[in-house]
Structures are given as structure tokens and as C-alpha cells.
Amino acid sequence: MTETVSDSAAKTQGAAGKPEHILEVTNLRKYFPVKSSGLIRRTVGHVQAVDGVSFAVPRGQTLGLVGESGCGKSTTGRLVTRLYDPTSGSMRFEGREIGGLNRRQMMPFRQEIQMIFQDPYSSLNPRHTVGTIVGTPMRVHKSVPKDKVLPRVRELLALVGLNPEHYNRYPNEFSGGQRQRIGIARALSLAPKLLVADEPVSALDVSIQAQVVNLLEDLQKEMDISFLFIAHDLAVIRHFCPEIAVMYLGKIVEIGERETVYNHPHHPYTQALISAAPDVKQAAIGGRRERIRLEGDVPSPINPPSGCRFRTRCSLAQDICAKVEPPLLQIGPKHKVACHFAGELGHHPSQPVTMELLGIDAQGSPVPGKQATDVGNEPGYDSTWYDVRTGRPAGA
Ligand SMILES: Nc1ncnc2c1ncn2[C@@H]1O[C@H](COP(=O)(O)OP(=O)(O)OP(=O)(O)O)[C@@H](O)[C@H]1O
Ligand code: SF4
Ligand SMILES: [Mg+2]
User: What are phi and psi of 303, to 5 degrees?
Assistant: First the structure.
């Protein structure tokens, strides 16, 4: 990347002089090596868990990341918190690049970016008391004087709705919902600016889920925390996230404002996901009740399909879909879709919307003399976009 940090920060300054986005992720990749068995373990392939995703988390707001199991949600969260090193790509936190920082350089950022884990049962050490679990980050980072750690632990326990006197109990003495609250107290202990919440309620009873989501909402307002909220449950995502990114097999296939993505999804995968979620089905398909069935299994991320990764399960797929990967094209003020035939359900165009832009014909072959426009995989939105209904550029 040739752009300097200050260039990027200046480009995205908000009204208060701070970057408008707390986090900007560009072309992020994580490939896990696959080793052969036997004595000499050679790398025989790669799991392309996250493959070139770009998104931005607005300051003090929430971006929801949704998709089926194995699509790369947790890997994305673990990259952002730098529990994993990225294979390539950029992550700018408050305008500063954190993708290439080593352990020591990451220390100050670790306080500011925290994670709530998927499973409240395995994410807490059963041999440590709650006081130790919640207090350890403060001790490690020396964020409060030693004698203030316990009072702060008690404050945090009270904040998440637990009895502050229970700091000397062990995780197994708490229910699942209470354990998730302990995980939240731990994540809050360093007063982070960004919280990556990885399926924070999926392991909990439905009755407890709402309580924990409400708690997160209250904490967000009180402490001005930005969230990257990961879930496979569209109802939870819809409740909590004003902006939503839909992932499929390591890629973002649609991203946009909540109402747009729910009421006017333009990607066949998003349309199928929404049609399968009981409470949001009707809003998405305008009163038609049938569910869109996704045929077949998710392909392996070790050897994903060429072109569009969704093509093996997409009822609209044509030759071009196997040949050319659809770019994440901005089609509205705050709406991007990666599909050659992007359109409202039942109104998908008969010709690829990407032809002109990519300089290709309807079969995906290059048209002599036509130049492909560079569709940058940049986070955030431009002031101009491509209107799929008119086939023309549009702008605010
Ligand atoms: N440490 C790892 N080594 C090798 N492959 C991994 C590793 N972690 C994840 N993967 C693979 O990467 C892909 C994405 O996994 P990830 O856990 O990010 O998915 P997810 O969207 O969080 O799924 P879920 O909804 O089940 O939590 C999967 O195919 C998974 O098997
Ligand atoms: S690009 Fe083709 S295969 Fe992919 S979602 Fe669109 S129509 Fe389906
Ligand atoms: Mg996960």
C-alpha cells in the first residue's frame, strides 16, 4: 500500500476530527496451511478462511457480520483482535495500521480492542475465580493500581448485572448466561473502544439471549463502544446492528444498512438467508411466504469454486459466474453487492450488471477494445454508485 496512514486518516475524518470509522479493513486474507500426514509434513494446500474482505466499523456503532457456519466470521474477528496474524491485507484502527504489528507493538491496542467469545463454557478458565478472570487484564496492562483492581472487578460485575460479592466464586458456579456476563465484564475491564462480539448469545437459552443483547446495547450507549457483532442468527443481528455484512465462504457478498439488506436484499444468498429466518421472512419478500431452499453443501474453502463462490448453490448461476468473480459493487448510497445478476428477488436482470464495468460480454469473455474499470475493494461507501435498475451511474 502506498497510501500513508495520515492520508487515509484525513480522508475519513469525522466532524470531531477523529476518523469516522474506528476500524477500516481492506482486502484482508487469512489462509491456514493444510499439512500432509506422515513424518515430513508438507503444506499441500490452504484453507482460504477469509479471502479479501473489506469493511468499516463506524465509530460508536455496530457492524453485524452474518453467514453460515464455516464462512469465516470467527476468523475475521480473531484477525481484527490480532489473535491471528493476517496472511495479507490492511487493518486500520483509528487510522493506524495494526495488521503488521508484532506482539509488543500491539500491546497498547490490545487494551482498546477486546473480544467476547462464542462459548461461555470454554472461554473461562475453570480453575480461576471470577475475580482473577476479570482482574487479570487490568493487572497485565497495569491499567489500574494493584489495590484498585478488586474494587474495579466488583464495579464491573455490578455493571453486567452480577452480584459483586461473587468475585471469589468459580465459573462452574454460574449459569451460561451469567458466564457470558463474566466474559463481557472481562472484555470491558480495559475500557475498550472496539468490542468484537463473536456469537455472544448463540450458546444461551432464547430467554437469556435478549437479556444479554440488551446489556450489550446499554453498555454501548453508556461507554460509547463500537461493535463488530458476529452471529448466524439474523433476528439477533437485525435487532442489534444498523449495518450488516453477509459472508459466504470467506467473502463478503452483500453489505449495507439494515433496512436495505433486510427489505431489499440483492444477492441470491442474502435472499435465501432472509427467507429462511422466520421473523424477517415476510418483510424481505413482501408477503410471499415460501422459503428459498439452498441446495447442496457449502463447498470446501480449501478448493473453492472458480468465479463466484456461491455459484454451486445458486439457482441464477450462468457461465459468467464460473469465469469471472463478481466485484463487490456499490449499488446504492450504503449498499454493496457481489453478484453479476444483482437485483431484487424476482427481478434479477437477464444480462450481467457487471459487463460494462468489467469490459466483458454476457458470457464473461473480455470484449476487445473495452477497458475494465478498477473496482477497488475499499471499505466504506463512495458518494457515487451504479444503479442496477437503470444501468447508469448515480450519486447523492
Ligand atoms: N486454526 C485453523 N486452522 C485451520 N482451519 C481453520 C482454523 N480456524 C478456522 N479454520 C477453518 O476456516 C474456515 C472458517 O472458520 P471460522 O471459524 O472462521 O467460521 P465461522 O463462520 O466462525 O463458523 P461458525 O459459525 O461455525 O462459528 C472453516 O473452514 C474452518 O474449518
Ligand atoms: S454471481 Fe452468479 S452464481 Fe454468484 S450469486 Fe450472482 S448469479 Fe449467483
Ligand atoms: Mg465462529
Answer: -140, 70
Among protein residues, the one whose CA lies closest to atom 6 of ligand 2: 339
- Burial of 231 (C-beta count, 10 Å sphere; 0-12/13-18/19+): buried
Work out the pLDDT band at 77, boundaries 50, 70, 90. very high
What is the predicted pLDDT for the residue at 18? 65
391 Rama class: left (phi>0) / alpha (psi -120 to 50) / beta:
left
pLDDT tens, position by position, 325-384: 999 999 999 999 999 999 999 999 999 999 989 999 999 999 999 888 888 789 999 999
Instruction: Fold for 16-32+46-241, please state it.
Output: Rossmann fold (3.40.50)
281 ligand 1 Cβ < 6 A: no
Rounded Cα gap, residues 163 and 352, in angstroms: 59
| Residue of 295, 306, 323, 340 to mutate, ligand 2, most atoms within 8 A of C-beta | 340
pTM greater than the 0.70 cutoff = yes
Ligand 2: which of 310, 344, 355, 388 to mutate, judged by most atoms within 8 Å of the beta carbon? 310
The response to whether residue 49 sits with its C-beta less than 6 Å from ligand 1 reads yes
